[in-house]
Write a structure and sequence with these properties.
It is built from five helices and five strands; from the N terminus they run E-H-E-H-E-H-E-H-E-H. It has about 120 residues and is α/β, with parallel strands linked by helices. It has a five-stranded parallel beta sheet, sandwiched between helices.
């Protein structure tokens, strides 16, 4: 079965790169350009893992983490330009499983995704 990755990010360049990288590895990828769409896709599509930006226009990745945690244990990786410890702690405390600072290496992100999917129920 193909694993499903939901990417929630309002930066088109990031979503293009991530879609290409994950699709090349045979993941089924869906993109949400805003948090509301991301939460709808989470409910309707049941992804195996979520990658979300921390800072978006309408509300934050923190809110996505909290909403997803109310529903289950889907692994969440946060991407952010914020590299302060306080931002990392806030995201992890809100339910994120991992935190990757932008800019990031795609191969490292792919390895983190594989690691989280191995541990997912």
């Amino acid at each position: 079965m193909t694993e499903r990755i939901l990417i929630v990010d309002d930066e088109a360049q990031i979503t293009r790169v991530l879609r290409a990288a994950f699709s090349a590895q045979a993941y089924d990828v869906r993109i949400a350009n805003d948090p509301e769409e991301g939460l709808r896709l989470f409910e309707d599509w049941s992804p195996d893992l979520i990658i979300t930006d921390l800072v978006m226009r309408s509300f934050s990745g923190i809110e996505i983490c909290k909403a997803v945690r109310k529903k289950g244990s889907t692994p969440i990786i946060v991407l952010s330009v914020r590299d302060q410890d306080s931002s990392k702690v806030e995201a992890l405390d809100a339910g994120a499983d991992d935190y990757v600072t932008k800019p990031f290496g795609v191969q490292e992100l792919l390895a983190r995704v594989r690691a989280h999917l191995r541990r997912a129920p």
